[in-house]
């Protein structure tokens, strides 16, 4: 659905925004001194965060160094910058390692974010603790991955067997090779689904990352790698038997298990294509066949976790791993996706400079699906209508409350609440408008609102890898918000909400110059939506209604054809 989240096309560097936003802030401040005085002060304060990171940020603004220059500095961050940070440092080891989700004993310098990220997480968030069963499954998985992963003896032996045998044989280690499809948001949600499938079937997950995925994430599995070695014959091979032909052969064989040859390698396409015949991937009979195939190559741009959840033989295991049903993505994404040192540098410096001091952080993701037919103003109206009426953003005097004239009492109203708004969009229009609105007009309660956009459309084009780096950093920054507003159907937003454990306000997907009411709805689950769910029960009858057939699977609010897991309080 969502090609590359919103960050696909063109990007400026993270910090070009500082060149733009700071001079504008100062300029506007000097024009309309009185109302925005507090904002200017707040900005100054933000820039004086006393730690090493902000020194780096300040130095770079003045010197105008390039993004590459900054990225290079990430690696040299010293322990003292951690000590001098403004966050309290009393958490125990469990907090640091995501309540036991992450195994200790990793090489800390190679992945700074694993140690530091807990300081950036929302303090007030409801804690979704991983279950002991999930933790033991993960520790067990890591053992299997170390034993069977690339460069091990078992890997060499198993791969040789798989390559050389015509049928499934009895390989000690079983694999699932994930291959990319669609944009980064789609790739991340499908990786999580594939990893859950690997956990359920004791397969080793290997990923086929192209150069656009270089150095976005740390290695997730202790003392091993998840990267499919470049010399693997499965790097290019997609032309083995397919899952679809296997199903056809199986049908022709009257589902009889005898005299049925299973291949050693099978290609499974679970991509978003609506007119395919039913895949029956959610049925035990299919899974019984697949279980015996030692190497599966899987391509999907979908979050097919709901399919796994309704598979009878997987249902109980998933329920035990995730007693809170809507935390599958939340836990597994936090387990798998740790920003590389380069990405972490972008994230933590932006956070320290703009978000750290805020009392409330509001993330807004605006994806424009049909730029040629939807004027910016229509989307801006939708956004304001959504955020103001649901009290996500404060009202300003004058714009939305014209009855209340400018008055001295308004200006002098004391309120030191600082709200930081982070806007992720390809276009600068939305952040620029919001920023101008809060600079020109005081808010009704007198809170101070700062608006920041990490990156936006610019002339400069980056390699795909840099686009992905920015997209990943933005998803992560959005996930650190206290309140999140996303655009319907955007997998970029799904990643942010899932990582952050947030139920976002979902803006209606506008495709023309119109208005829509309600402009947004509150999601009932932090899980991503599966856009193309199975249509049939395993006996071939149509699934009439997911909610009544399968507990905890309901229609997505942003896409009624799709389904997602939820915990309780579906409405
Ligand atoms: C940061 O704060 C510490 C103590 O609060 C102080 O000793 C140090 O000089 C400050 N550093 C800078 C660069 O302001
Ligand atoms: C700017 O860069 C120069 C040389 O690269 C360095 O000497 C100077 O300290 C830098 N200024 C700041 C504020 O970082
Ligand atoms: C696995 O095979 C590779 C060559 O394909 C070799 O370099 C490596 O040493 C082998 N590893 C083990 C543990 O046998
Ligand atoms: C991981 O590797 C490190 C360094 O080689 C080693 O000290 C540690 O024991 C290993 N951990 C596990 C669980 O194998
Ligand atoms: C499958 O069943 C049909 C009828 O039930 C029969 O005609 C056909 O020969 C069977 N095929 C195989 C491969 O057993
Ligand atoms: C305007 O502000 C006043 C004072 O805060 C408030 O009572 C009133 O409801 C607001 N009007 C609208 C239309 O929001
Ligand atoms: C400041 O604003 C917050 C909302 O952002 C509000 O809850 C609080 O009551 C305000 N305080 C004052 C003194 O107006
Ligand atoms: C969009 O609609 C509004 C009001 O319906 C109108 O004023 C405006 O000109 C339209 N803009 C475009 C680009 O069609
Ligand atoms: C097919 O399976 C569904 C779900 O298990 C069941 O509700 C339905 O009655 C079955 N239909 C037939 C014709 O067996």
Overview of the molecule:
The chain is an alpha/beta fold and 571 residues long. It has 2 domains: 132-336, no CATH class; 354-565. It is 40% helix and 10% strand. It contains 22 helices and 13 strands. The protein has helices at 16-31, 33-47, 52-63, 67-74, 79-83, 93-96, 112-116, 132-148, 153-164, 184-201, 243-252, 284-291, 305-309, 312-321, 328-336, 341-355, 376-389, 408-412, 429-440, 464-479, 491-500, 546-549; strands spanning 175-179, 204-207, 241-242, 265-269, 295-299, 360-366, 418-425, 448-452, 483-487, 505-507, 520-522, 553-555, 563-565. The strands form 3 sheets. A 6-stranded mixed β-sheet has the order 8-7-6-9-10-11, sandwiched between helices. The longest helix has 18 residues, at 184-201. It is globular. The relative contact order is 0.15. Bound molecules: 2-acetamido-2-deoxy-beta-D-glucopyranose (9 copies). One 2-acetamido-2-deoxy-beta-D-glucopyranose (NAG) is lined by residues 394, 415, 417, 445-447. Residues 151-153, 156 line the site of one 2-acetamido-2-deoxy-beta-D-glucopyranose (NAG).
